[in-house]
Design goal:
The longest helix has 20 residues, at 122-141. Helices cover 24% and strands 22% of the residues. A five-stranded antiparallel β-sheet has the order 1-2-3-5-4. A four-stranded antiparallel β-sheet has the order 17-18-24-19, with helices on one face. A four-stranded antiparallel β-sheet has the order 21-20-22-23, covered by helices on one side. It has helices spanning 16-19, 59-62, 65-79, 111-115, 122-141, 191-195, 202-218, 235-244, 256-270, 385-397, 425-434, 445-454, 540-552, and strands spanning 26-35, 38-45, 50-56, 89-95, 98-104, 109-110, 144-145, 154-156, 162-164, 171-172, 297-298, 301-302, 304-312, 317-325, 354-356, 362-364, 409-411, 414-423, 438-439, 461-466, 475-476, 504-508, 515-519, 524-531, 564-566, 569-571. With 583 residues, it is α+β, with helices and mostly antiparallel strands. It contains 13 helices and 26 strands. Among the domains are: 121-153 and 177-290, Transferase(Phosphotransferase) domain 1 (Transferase(Phosphotransferase), domain 1, Orthogonal Bundle); 392-571, Mannose-Binding Protein A, subunit A (Mannose-Binding Protein A, Chain A), CATH 3.10.100.10.
C-alpha cells in the first residue's frame, strides 16, 4: 500500500480498493475520516447485512508489542460489554501489518449539539442522566472506566436515546496511568485526577455524570474548579448533585447504579415527562429553553456519526472516539423520520375528548381534572457576566471578537474583563487560557492607572507578570520585560531559592497604579485580556513556541509563565488532555 517516503511517520490512509481484498467479509462503502492515529471507513458486514465502522491503525502501532498487547486487552474488554446505551465493539485483528477494530455504526448526533447553553426540563434531564448511568454501570461491571463523560461524548440515536461513545480515555478498573499523565475535560473531570492521575476509579466517572446533569439543568458548562455543584432548582436534585460531585471521592456515590436509582425515585415526584419508558411520546421540555433533542437534517446532507477510536501511547489506553461527518454517502441509510424531544403542546392545543351522550350522539363531557404535580422552573434571570463569558468562551477561543462578556471594557487594541472570583495564579491563568484570553499585560504606570479608573477591586488583581523560571528577572507573558518603575516600594522580592513555589507573580496593587509581587498560591481576582485582532502572543502556545525557538538557536530562553525552577531545572505542568505523542 502507498506510503509517504518523504515522511515515514506520516500515516497514509489505504484506499477502498486497497482494503477491499483484505476484508472479504465486508463491503467497503466509504472513507469517513483520517487522523494521525489512523483512518475510519464505513462498511457493510455481508453476513449480517449491517453497517459497521472499521478503524485502521498505522503499522508502527502494530510493531510495538506493548501497544499491541494493550490494544487487544482493551478491545476484548469493550467487546464483552453489551448494553443498549453503549456503543458495541464487534471484532478486531491485524491485516497487512495494521491493527483494526470493527464497531457499531451509529446514526445520530451528540447531546452537546442539542443542549449546549440551554437548560432542559428537570424531569427530562434526570431521565436522560439515569439512562446514561445505567449504561455506565454496565461498563463499570465489565471493569471499564470511561473517564471523559460529557455532552459531546453522548450520542442521541434516531430515537433520541442516549448511547455512551468516546471511550477514548477508558482503561480497566484498577489500572493506573503513566506518572504525570492527566486526562479528561476541565469542568467534568474529578478533582482527584488533577491531584493524582493514578487515583482513578468508578467515583471519578460519577463526578463527571453529576457535572453532566448540572449542565443539562442549568444550561451552562460547569466551571473547571467547581466542586459539589448545585442548581437552586429543587433541593432534592441538589442533594443528589452534591453527593455526586463532592470534592472528596469517599463522600460520593460509590456505585453509579445507586445514582441512577436516586434519580429514578425522584422523577415521579417531580412530575412532567418520562424519557425512556414512553418512546412514542414527545417529552416536555422547558418551553423557555427552545431545546430540541433530536437528530437534524442539514441542507448540505445529513450528518452521520461513526465510532472511531484513538490509541493513546504512553498510558497504553485504547481510545474509542465518536466522529461526526457530513458525508452524503450515508444519507440514504438514515431514517427520514426521527423521534424528537420537544415542548409538549399546551392543554388548550390538545383536542378535546368526545364521549357518547345518553342519546348515543357524540357530546362534550366535562370531567374533573386530576391535579398533577408540576415542575416549577424559576423565571430566567438576567445573564450574569460569568454566564455571558461561558456562552462566548468557544467563540473567543476560536479568535472571534464580535462580542465580549458583560462588563468587558475595550481600550486601544484590547478588551479587558475583571474576573472577580478569588483564584490562585495558576487557576486564574488556566481559566484565562480556557476562555481564549491571557492574564493582562499592563506594562506602564499609565496602564495601571487606567485600570484603577475603570475597575474596582479591594484586593490585588493577578496579571501576566512573573519571574517564572528566572527568579529576579521579571517578564510579561508576551516575552517583554517588566519595567522596574511599575513596582511598589520594596518590590519585587528577588531572593533566589530552590523552593519550587518560590517563583512570584505580579498583581495590580489595590491602592496604587503599581505592581506587587505575590506567592502563586495566594488567591486574588484576575484581569483577563483579549487582543481585538484575535492574536494570542501571550497564550501558552505562543510562549512555548518562543521558548522552543530560543533553545533551538541556543539562546537564553524566557520560560512560559508558571514554570517551576527546581534546582536549576525547569518544569511546567500543562493541565490539558493530550496523547503521549502530542505531549
Amino acid at each position: 500500500m502507498a506510503e509517504d517516503e518523504s515522511n515515514p511517520t506520516e500515516f497514509v490512509a489505504p484506499t477502498l480498493e486497497e482494503l477491499g481484498p483484505l476484508f472479504p467479509a465486508y463491503e467497503l462503502e466509504a472513507f469517513i475520516a483520517q487522523g494521525g492515529m489512523g483512518a475510519v471507513y464505513k462498511a457493510r458486514q455481508k453476513s449480517l447485512d449491517r453497517s459497521v465502522a472499521i478503524k485502521i491503525l498505522p503499522r508502527e502501532f502494530g510493531d510495538d508489542p506493548q501497544f499491541r498487547s494493550s490494544f487487544e486487552a482493551e478491545a476484548k474488554a469493550m467487546a464483552r460489554l453489551n448494553h443498549p446505551n453503549l456503543i458495541s465493539v464487534y471484532d478486531f485483528g491485524d491485516i497487512d501489518g495494521m491493527l483494526y477494530i470493527v464497531m457499531e455504526f451509529v446514526h445520530g448526533k451528540a447531546l452537546y449539539y442539542s443542549a449546549h447553553n440551554r437548560a432542559i426540563d428537570p424531569a427530562v434531564a434526570l431521565e436522560m442522566v439515569s439512562t446514561i448511568s445505567r449504561g455506565l454501570a454496565h461498563a463499570h461491571q465489565g471493569g471499564i472506566i470511561h473517564r471523559d463523560i460529557k455532552p459531546a461524548n453522548i450520542l442521541l440515536d434516531a430515537d433520541a436515546k442516549p448511547k455512551i461513545g468516546d471511550f477514548g480515555l477508558a482503561h480497566p478498573v484498577g489500572r493506573g496511568e503513566g506518572e504525570g499523565l492527566v486526562f479528561g475535560t476541565p469542568g467534568y473531570t474529578a478533582p482527584e485526577i488533577f491531584q493524582n492521575g493514578t487515583e482513578v476509579d468508578q467515583r471519578s466517572d460519577i463526578f463527571s455524570v453529576g457535572a453532566l446533569l448540572y449542565e443539562l439543568l442549568c444550561g451552562r458548562h460547569p466551571e473547571a474548579d467547581s466542586h459539589s455543584m448545585t442548581t437552586g432548582i429543587d433541593p432534592r436534585i441538589d442533594n443528589i448533585l452534591k453527593k455526586a460531585t463532592n470534592a472528596n471521592p469517599t463522600l460520593r456515590y460509590s456505585d453509579v447504579g445507586d445514582l441512577a436509582d436516586d434519580l429514578d425515585n425522584l422523577i415521579p415526584k417531580l412530575g412532567g415527562p418520562q424519557f425512556a419508558t414512553t418512546p412514542a411520546a414527545s417529552p416536555t421540555l422547558n418551553s423557555g429553553s427552545n431545546v430540541v433533542l433530536s437528530s437534524s437534517k442539514e441542507k448540505s446532507g445529513i450528518a452521520s456519526f461513526v465510532v472511531i477510536f484513538l490509541l493513546l501511547l504512553g498510558g497504553g489506553a485504547v481510545a474509542f472516539y465518536v466522529f461526526g461527518n457530513g458525508d452524503e454517502t450515508t444519507q440514504s441509510s438514515i431514517p427520514k423520520e426521527r423521534a424528537e424531544l420537544k415542548p409538549a403542546p399546551k392543554p388548550k392545543d390538545r383536542p378535546e375528548k368526545k364521549q357518547l351522550g345518553n342519546g348515543g350522539e357524540m357530546a362534550d363531557k366535562e370531567k374533573p381534572a386530576k391535579p398533577k404535580p408540576k415542575v416549577v422552573v424559576p423565571p430566567k434571570a438576567a445573564e450574569t457576566p460569568l454566564e455571558s463569558l461561558d456562552r462566548l468562551s468557544q467563540l473567543l477561543v476560536d479568535g472571534l471578537r464580535d462580542e465580549f462578556p458583560i462588563g468587558t471594557i475595550k481600550r486601544e487594541k484590547s478588551a479587558y474583563f475583571l474576573l472577580k472570583q478569588n483564584m490562585t495564579w495558576d487557576e486564574a491563568n488556566n481559566f484565562a487560557n480556557r476562555h481564549g484570553a491571557h492574564l493582562t499585560l499592563l506594562p506602564t504606570s499609565a496602564d495601571l492607572a487606567w485600570f484603577h479608573e475603570n475597575f474596582e477591586s479591594t484586593s490585588p488583581v493577578w496579571t501576566g507578570a512573573s519571574d517564572s523560571g528566572f527568579e529576579g528577572k521579571w517578564f510579561w507573558s508576551d516575552g517583554s520585560a517588566v519595567d522596574a518603575k511599575v513596582w511598589v516600594d520594596k518590590s519585587p522580592d528577588n531572593r533566589i531559592t530552590d523552593n519550587p513555589n518560590g517563583e512570584d507573580f505580579g498583581a495590580i496593587s489595590s491602592s496604587a497604579p503599581n505592581l506587587e509581587d505575590h506567592h502563586r498560591l495566594q488567591k486574588f481576582p484576575a484581569l483577563l485580556e483579549w487582543c481585538l485582532d484575535g492574536s494570542t502572543s501571550a497564550s501558552l502556545t505562543s510562549q512555548l513556541a518562543r521558548t522552543g525557538e530560543a533553545l533551538k538557536n541556543k539562546r537564553t530562553p524566557i520560560f512560559p509563565s508558571g514554570t517551576y525552577n527546581i534546582g536549576g531545572s525547569r518544569f511546567l505542568l500543562v493541565k490539558d488532555a493530550v496523547s503521549w505523542e502530542q505531549g
